[in-house]
Amino acid sequence: MSEYKATVFVITSREDGLQRRPKANVDTISDNEAYRLRSIQRLLFTIDEQIEELNKIFGILLFLNLGGNLFYLLSSIINLIYRYVYANDIFSLCFILKRFFNMLIIFQSPGILLTQRRKCLAVARRLSLYNQDCKEITDIVDNLQNEPKFEICGMFLLGRHNLFSMLNFVMTYLIVAIQFSSNEDTQKKNLPSANYTQLLD
């Protein structure tokens, strides 16, 4: 019985000790956390401003660059289809790949800034998890949730998804061009026989 009482006394004393432990003041943050939070906030605002400036200044140039590269890409592919691919067309293929990689670099470029922004936002979220009741951190994290968008002249968003859209468009254009080229070849082959039958008549 004495052992049982001793055990109960130890358990109750531990619970009392846990209950009497002073709670941390989560409504305030330390100077180190405040400095980190302000640094993250400034960095995210700087990234957002850079994205807005990029949209304003380089939007038209990026649109013209992408449009010119796509036009050159399609015209070169059509030229190769009509001439067929010979050994001397390797130079043309290299230029096609060069234009394609130029477009690929433009499509991938927004991911660099957005990735850095997401990393900084993840740090701010970790701070908010440690200080869930701190309104200052939660307000900043909520305000930084919306990511800025890379827009080209307000027409479409720039990102990795453009690569799949471009490949889909090029493949559709390529299939239509090949079908049109094969129809022209069949018409040219049938032309001499039609002229010969007219001469016989």
From TrEMBL:
GO biological process, one term: sensory perception of taste
Compartments where found: Cell membrane
Keyword Transmembrane helix: yes
GO cellular component assignments: axon; dendrite; neuronal cell body; plasma membrane
TM ranges: 57-78, 163-182
Alphabetical list of InterPro entries matching this protein: 7TM_chemorcpt
Keywords: Cell membrane, Membrane, Receptor, Transmembrane, Transmembrane helix
Main location: membrane
Topological category with respect to the lipid bilayer: Multi-pass membrane protein
Protein's UniProt name: Uncharacterized protein
Species assigned in the record: Halocaridina rubra (Hawaiian red shrimp)
